[in-house]
Amino acid sequence: MGWSKSDLNLQVADYISWAVYRKWNSGDLRSYRIIEQCIRSEADPLEGHAEEYY
Question: Which of 17, 20, 27, 43 is deepest in the core (most CB within 10 A)?
Fold first, then answer.
């Protein structure tokens, strides 16, 4: 346990996914602006689906 704290790659992936989530979920761009130059594209995997997921 605790291995994720010492894995820099996992921390980077976690931060990026969190920043993108904050952008789309609450409109908070502060963290996204730090990483946006590294983002090539974003895709919503549920876009175009009529079903609701909970």
Answer: 20
